[in-house]
Design brief:
Helix 5 (about 120-140) packs parallel to helix 8 (about 210-240), helix 10 (about 290-305) packs across helix 14 and helix 11 (about 335-345) packs parallel to helix 12 (about 380-395). The strands form seven sheets. The chain has a seven-stranded mixed sheet. A hairpin with a 4-residue loop joins strand 23 and strand 24 (about 630-640). The chain is built from 17 helices and 28 strands. The protein is of the alpha/beta class. Helices cover about 30% and strands about 20% of the residues. It binds beta-D-galactopyranose (GAL).
């Protein structure tokens, strides 16, 4: 069970006073400015290890005591970080084993951050000791609100300690080497292992083509990272059992192999609260802000769902530019507030920035912050940040509401790793995350609330589940989908689905899946980027690209057929009634106009309509949150465009504007990058 956040909206930032210990006047100024910016929550000590323990065993907590006390006196909630994200230089020097070994088997030098070995007993001991001291010291401190464990866990280590742990993990999973060889299909290229010690993590100078090994390595890295996390929280749970723990996740991490990240679906289960760091590239020339908003919404919906649909935390975002993106673009007026409100609309109960104050030196000195090096409170960024603080106070009542989705879109990390690794199809066109987002977008643009779920989540409370490109589909998941459909659910899936099992062995026949879809897929053709295929669907013609299946019907009916290409005349889209439910199969990657028409039909069939009938205009996003206790619904109307817009809807007249407390007009005007928060059940004031 996830921890339930207090009914409050948290507003603040990562704060690094450890960089300013020689400048007490700056710290004084910070506390003044924090008030002026209407903040109430700060993450501190994220990179504070060197400031606490300058030399091994010599501790200086006084600066942190002082910051904690000042936080408490201003009523701020502290997300107190364990500082393991950056190991001190003395430690890296004295204990080389805590430094990672990369896939080329080179031990790294000290530098950067988030690059410690997760297996090293010494680092585990050091972090546990540090955390115990923090917990003992601050257990009764009124400012302590949450533990922020380390920072953005990620990456991997290939040292001998990790190799040993990997082999142990494999032994537990497979029992015998014979079984492992079988499941990994190591007879291919004569790669059969005859001793456990022969197994090494994937490497460009070693093994990289046993795909089941690659997949198990990714699973192990997740496992080992979670174990490290658990080692960190052990003393905290012992000393401060009531204080929740979180760690900050990153986007739909990973973007690509080989930096293939962690399975957050699994990691989330170990956290009390899920939180994430959002850095969308607003105002970029390759997509509209509306599209960027959709991709950001997708990730928020993923983390909200991983947080068991309880409010999650937006742990980091920038009030201004992001210095590591291709261009450090500023935000247009309004964008900062809109971005914050979007996060709340998708179920977050916080807007926390990276960072409160810009550093004076090193790599992040040009990264956006609430306070810049000029230390002023009359800057555009500071004023907008202070405004958002005020806005969040006005909207605080929304914190007790949650989202209720009838539609779920599947997104699974193991599937993504296996699919990215698969040598076949189009090497560049698989685009799993983009494909899932394209399906998600059809619901998002209509103003529906959507859950984004991994294979670990239950399906029974949805009317519609959409699973694009379910390449790796464990039997257990097939059974879960079947039960969902048998009980009346509607399931949509696509090309490149149900191809391999959990060790990446090709399934061939699968009686349950085949019966459910009512079709047999014989071949899949992958197209070159410049090629298209035409197919019909309900009397209209659409363009498809990248993948087309050769489908033969069993019980299913064809609702669309190819109109050219090798499979001309064969089914392209099928529909199968299965027990009380329905299964649709797309044997082609249809374009946006197809997805639009396809889902329109299904949503009508299932009577899944948004409660406000507003146009789909590439500008407006509508999302809702519902308060079970007062039975009121909150409508977030967000304008992701640089134009002022107006919408007329008879229902507006029955809704209250949360910020003004007044009944809304029938026509609502929203400025460029503006928003409105309306609520059902309001009365005129
Ligand atoms: C995050 C990280 C922060 C800061 C930020 C800059 O990934 O957690 O410490 O570096 O990026 O955007």
């Amino acid at each position: 069970m996830k921890y339930q956040l207090p009914k409050k909206l948290f507003y603040g930032a990562d704060y690094n006073p450890d960089q300013w210990l020689d400048y007490p006047e700056i710290i004084d100024r910070d506390f003044y400015l924090m008030k002026a910016a209407n903040t109430n929550a700060f993450s501190i000590n994220i990179f504070g290890w060197s400031a606490i323990e300058k030399k091994e065993g010599e501790y200086t907590f006084e600066w942190l005591d002082n910051i904690m006390d000042r936080m408490a006196s201003q009523g701020n909630n502290v997300l107190l970080a364990t500082p393991s994200g950056a190991k001190p230089a003395w430690m890296a020097q004295k204990y080389p084993e805590i430094r990672r070994v990369n896939a080329m088997r080179q031990r790294e030098l000290q530098g950067l951050r988030q690059n410690h070995c997760f297996t090293s007993p010494i680092y585990r001991e050091k972090t546990a000791k540090m955390n115990r001291m923090l917990a003992e010291r601050y257990k009764d401190h009124p400012a302590l609100f949450m533990w922020h464990i380390s920072n953005e866990f990620g990456g991997e280590c290939h040292c001998s300690l990790c190799q040993e742990a990997f082999r142990k993990w494999l032994k537990e999973r497979y029992g015998t080497l014979e079984n492992l060889n079988k499941q990994w299909w190591t007879s291919f290229w004569s790669h059969t292992y005859t001793e456990w010690e022969q197994i090494e993590s994937p490497s460009p100078i070693g093994e990289s083509q046993v795909h089941a090994l690659n997949l198990d390595w990714r699973r192990f890295v997740t496992f080992q990272t979670i174990e490290f996390y658990q080692n960190e929280i052990k003393p905290l749970k012992e000393i401060t059992p009531e204080i929740p723990c979180t760690t900050n996740f990153m986007g739909d991490y990973p973007l690509q192999a080989p930096f293939a990240g962690l399975d957050y679906g699994k990691f989330a289960k170990a956290l009390d609260v899920v939180s994430w760091d959002a850095y969308p590239e607003w105002h970029n020339p390759d997509e509209s802000d509306y599209e960027t908003a959709c991709r950001t919404a997708f990730v928020s919906d993923l983390y909200r769902t991983l947080n068991e649909n309880k409010p999650f935390l937006l742990m980091e975002c920038t009030p201004s530019a992001v210095n590591w993106q291709r261009v450090a673009k500023l935000k247009e007026p309004g964008m900062n507030t809109l971005m914050g409100m979007q996060s709340i609309a998708h179920g977050s109960n916080s807007v926390l920035y990276f960072q409160w104050r810009k550093s004076k030196g090193s790599s992040e000195k040009f990264h956006g912050a609430v306070v810049s090096q000029d230390d002023r409170e009359d800057t555009r960024v500071f004023k907008e940040a202070a405004d958002l603080g005020k806005t969040l106070k006005q909207c605080e009542e929304v914190s007790s509401s949650v989202k209720r989705a009838k539609v779920a879109v599947l997104y699974d990390w193991e599937n993504r790793w296996a699919l990215d690794d698969a040598q076949g199809y189009g090497l560049k066109s698989k685009e799993y995350a983009k494909t899932v987002e394209a399906h998600y977008r059809e619901f998002w643009k209509r103003g529906l609330d959507i859950d984004v779920i991994t294979y670990n989540e239950p399906l029974h409370h949805y009317d519609l589940v959409v699973g694009p490109m379910l390449y790796l589909l464990p039997d257990e998941m097939v059974n879960k989908i079947e039960t969902f459909v048998k009980n009346g659910g509607t399931f949509v899936t696509t090309y490149i689905s149900n191809i391999v099992n959990e060790t990446d062995l090709v399934k061939g026949l699968d009686p349950i899946f085949d019966q459910m879809t009512g079709i047999r897929v014989e071949e899949v053709d992958s197209l070159y980027a410049k090629d298209n295929v035409l197919f019909s669907y309900k009397g209209k013609s659409y363009k498809g690209s990248d993948y087309i299946d050769s489908i033969f019907l069993n019980e299913a009916v064809a609702v669309g057929r190819f109109q050219d290409h090798l499979f001309n005349g064969q089914p392209a889209i099928t529909k199968n009634i299965y027990h009380k439910g329905m299964v649709y199969y797309m044997g082609v990657r249809g374009n946006e106009s197809f997805l639009h028409d396809f889902y329109q039909e299904i949503l009508e069939e299932l009577d899944l309509q948004p409660s406000l009938q507003l146009p789909i205009d590439g500008k407006l996003s509508v999302q809702t949150r519902h308060d079970e206790e007062s039975n009121s619904t909150y409508y977030f109307l967000m304008n992701f465009s640089d134009e002022n817009v107006s919408y007329t809807e008879p229902l507006f007249n029955t809704l209250k504007d949360v910020q003004t407390g007044k009944i809304a007009e029938q026509t609502i005007h929203i400025p460029a990058y503006g928003f409105k928060l309306l609520k059902s059940g309001g009365t005129t004031e």
